Amino acid sequence: MIYFYYGDEEFNISNEIKKLKSKLDKNFFEMSYKEFDNPKFPDLMVAITTQPMMFGKMLIVIDCVSYFKSKKKDSDNEGGFEDGQIRQIEKALDCVNENVDIVFKAYVVPDSKKKNLIDKRKKLFKLFSKYNAQEFNQIPAYKTAELETWIKNQAKKHDLKINSDAVSLLLLQVGSNLRMLDSELEKLKVFAKDKPATKEMVKEICISNEDFFAFIESVVTGVKEKALEQYNKLISTRYPLSILSTLHSSLKDKIFIKANGGKYSQDELAKILNIHPYRVKLELQKLKQVSLKSLVALKENLTEAEYKIKTGQSNLAPEREIEYAILR
User: Fold this and answer.
1) Tens digits of per-residue pLDDT, 254-268?
2) d(CA 186, CA 191)
3) pTM of the model
4) Considering the domain 144-205 in this protein, what is its CATH number?
C-alpha cells in the first residue's frame, strides 16, 4: 500500500506513520522498517522496489518534501527528476508488493512555510496524490472551538475525562501545538487517574507560559526592577537567545496590535496574528498606557543586542547584553 502524507502538522503525520509501524513484527523491526531522506532517483528506485522479507510486512518511509519546493524555473525542475524518470517511478509504484507499505512524507516546517510551500503543480505531487493522500495542516490558534474539540477527542483516546473549563484553560495556557497538548493530556491522565481533569489540575501540573508573559509585560510597561528579577529567573532555565527570540515575536504582535487596534476588530486581529482571541483582548487593555514609540524603541534595542551577540561584537555575555537592551 502506498501513502502520501503532507502538510505542516508534524504530530498528525507522525501518528499516521506510528499506526503503520505498530503492524510490523517487533522481533524483526530493524529489518522491516527503513527510512530515506529525499533520495535521488537511483536510491528512490531502490527504496520503492524493495521486496519484503519472509517475516511479514515491511514499512518504508520516504521524506520527500524537497521534491515539491517551488523554484524560479519550475517548468524545468520536477524535484530533480526528468519526465522519463517520473514514468519509471509511476511504473514501480504500480508494482509495489502487497506486503510492503510505502509512505511518502512531505512535512513543511511552519516557521519557514512561506519559503518551503509545497508546489502542488508538480507532476510528482500529482502522481503521489493518486494513492492514499492526506493533507495535515495545523489548526490556527484563533480557531479555539476547533482546538477545544480536538483536545476533548484526544483526551478520550487517553481514556481521560476532562471538564470544559479545564479544556479552555489548557488551550490558553499551553497554546495550539498539538504535540505539547497531547503531552499535557498524558500528564493529566496520570495525575487525575479515574477522576475528571479539572481547571485546578491544569494550573497545578501543566506547563505554562505565564511566567514569560509576566516578564514581557514588565519589560513593555517599563517596570524595570520587576523585569530584571523575572529575567534572572528565566535565564536559569532558558538559553538567552531563546528568550530574545520569544521577546521579538511577542513585541512584533504587540506593535501590530497597538498600531492597528482601531482599524481591526479583536477577532480580526486574532486571525491575522494567529493567536488566541482572549490574548488580543488582554493586549488591547494592557497596551492602553504604552506608547507605540516605546515599543518600537525596545524592539530596536533588542535587535541591536541580537546583532552584537551573533556577530561576536558584544563585549558582554549574551545574557548581560540582552539585560542591557531591556534596561536601556
Assistant:
1) 999 999 998 999 889
2) 9
3) 0.68
4) 1.10.8.60
